[in-house]
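Q: Okay, next protein. This is DUF2752 domain-containing protein from Nocardioides cavernaquae. I've checked the sequence twice, so it should be correct. Can you predict the 3D structure?
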Amino acid sequence: MATLATEPVTHADRAAGRARRLVGPLGLAGVCLAGAAALHLRDPHESGSWGFCPFLVVTGHPCPGCGGLRAVNDLTNLDVVSAASSNLLFVASLPLLAFLWVRWAAGAWTGSPPRPLRHGTALVVAGLAAVLLFWLVRSLPFGAWLAP
């Protein structure tokens, strides 16, 4: 009768597995850093430097993302107040996005995926509601201070 022999897992095997698991989180971080660097070098405050928002061009109203590029540029210049003025929703969402990325990266590092967030569906619905509310309020006269 044949028995299955298992070879011991070596440090190199664990490191290779960790490297494969970290491709996603580190790849996303690299793309975000490259985008931030590009936005730092080419100022989106100059009209048309990064094109125009199609929704704004068609409707004349800003979308929830309008001002996001300017906010990233302001953050790369360490100007949080101007970033919040450009797109408050984007700046306010950064701590949550950072938390989710750290959970993902930590799970990839340890090899144990993060546990699902409690009330995940409710959080997604609340996030979508916040985006829609932000979009609505910034287009009304009393919310003009939120416009980019």
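A: Here is a summary of the prediction. DSSP finds six helices and no strands in the chain. The helical segments are 11-41, 54-59, 68-76, 80-86, 88-110, 120-138.
Q: Noted. On to the next one.
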